Amino acid sequence: MVRVAIHGLTNAELVQRARKLLPRGHGFARRIHRQVMLEGRFCPASLGLGREACAAWHSKFSFDLPEVVTVRSDSGDHGATSKAVLRLHDGLEVESVCIPMGRGRYTLCVSSQVGCKMRCAFCETGRMGLLRHLSTEEIIAQVLVARHRLGWPIRNIVFMGMGEALDNAENVIHALRVLNDEAGLAIGQERLTICTVGHVEGIRLLDRQGFKRLNLSISLNAASDSLRSELMPINRRTNLAALQEVLASYRPRRNFALGINYCLIPGVNDTEEDARAITSFCQPLGRVLVNLIPYNPGSQPISRAPEEAEIERFIGWLRDAGLAVRERVTKGRSVMAACGQLGNPDARAQRAASA
Ligand code: SF4
Fold first, then answer.
1. 293, 282, 215: which is closest to 253 by C-alpha?
2. Cβ(123) to ligand 1 under 6 A?
3. Which of helix, strand or coil describes residue 217?
4. Please, which pLDDT band fits residue 23 given cuts at 50, 70 and 90?
5. CA 342 / ligand 1 centre spacing (Å)
6. Ligand 1: centre distance to CA 164 (Å)
7. Are strands 93-102 and 105-109 parallel, antiparallel or unpaired?
8. How high is the pLDDT of residue 343?
């Protein structure tokens, strides 16, 4: 029988499962869950359980973290950006990135899929295609590895690693509940961000979950249908008008500010007309914050990285039009940990060769 992964459950879910599966020792479920989540170990004996009850726990439940294959770091003004490559139980690999946010605070960028089927033109992961979804416990495992194996002092979590989070909505939404669980990891919703290409069914589903303080950001990258369809094939299925409509009705709280991520690609989406198109796209969306991300050339660049003057000029056009804009300082470029650089395009071929 397949054992149940403890770290894929909330505290209350583990209590329920343990009651069902264990004749004895289920009363320790709450403490075992906290031990796994807060200490990164599964050792019922250390909590005072007898030999038989411990064996029963180990026969029904598991706590296995992926192996850390490599960790590479790139130092910057606010601290080091580090990328960890993790090997999953089936040999496939995912990447998580620890990003310094200043004042000793770090954000962990987690993956939600191995590869991605969205095929955005500027993204390394998109070139892999989708190999598979990550389960809830594989998503949570990235946080536990970061905290307990690598000692990274993670404060915020953003679903912006490999994969389109809302293409794996069921597992991602469950992972949000596990992360937010007061009796477990207790990471506040305001410290969690879902980033999506604009998966409208996923946004509607997220809206129905009642997460009042969760952050949401969308990757816009072009505000005309023709260019966006070229850069982001999802736009051929859901155009900007449909995306705008679903975003305009996404209002989890009164002071909610939607994140608009815009990867600035020189010669592709960096004209004054592009800036004007962003402004009119954002106009009906209420409060927004544009995150301007300088393009990071990957293994098959579609352009170069923008110069600082080009970034400033573009930001100026947006601010003049009244938009709140923040430049996302590029971090981790030298270790391929920056936005759009995660992923191993050869993974599909490698898997086919080993099958
Ligand atoms: S940018 Fe995100 S959604 Fe697009 S291909 Fe890359 S991982 Fe997938």
1. 215
2. yes
3. strand
4. confident
5. 9
6. 6
7. antiparallel
8. 65
What is the pLDDT, as a whole number, of residue 335?
Answer: 54
Of 181, 212, 189, 185, give the one whose Cα is nearest residue 12: 181
Among the listed residues 120, 195, 282, 339, the single catalytic one is 339
Residue 195 known to be catalytic: no
Structure tokens at 47: 């909590």
Ligand 1 centroid – CA 228 distance (Å): 13
Q: Which long-range contacts (CB under 8 A, 24 or more apart) does 54-57 make?
A: 54/25, 56/22, 56/23, 56/24, 56/25, 57/18, 57/22, 57/25, 57/28, 57/32
Calculate the CA 104 to chain-centre distance. Answer: 21
pLDDT value at 211 more than 80: yes
Contact 10, 180 (CB under 8 A): no
pTM: 0.93
pLDDT digits (tens, 9 = 90+) for 37-86: 999 999 999 999 999 999 999 999 999 999 999 999 988 777 889 999 99
Q: Kind and range of the H or E element at 216? A: strand 215-219
Task: Identify how many contiguous H helices and E strands the chain contains and give both numbers.
Answer: 12, 14
Token output for 257: 């500010």
111, 113, 123, best to mutate for ligand 1 pocket (most atoms within 8 Å of CB): 123
pLDDT in the model for residue 113 = 96
- The finding on whether 115 has its CB within 6 A of some atom of ligand 1 is no
The answer to whether 21 and 4 are in contact (CB under 8 A) is: yes
Give the pLDDT confidence of 125-181 residue by residue, as tens digits: 888 899 999 999 999 999 999 999 999 999 999 999 999 999 999 999 999 999 999
Alpha-carbon distance 68 to 89, whole Å? 12
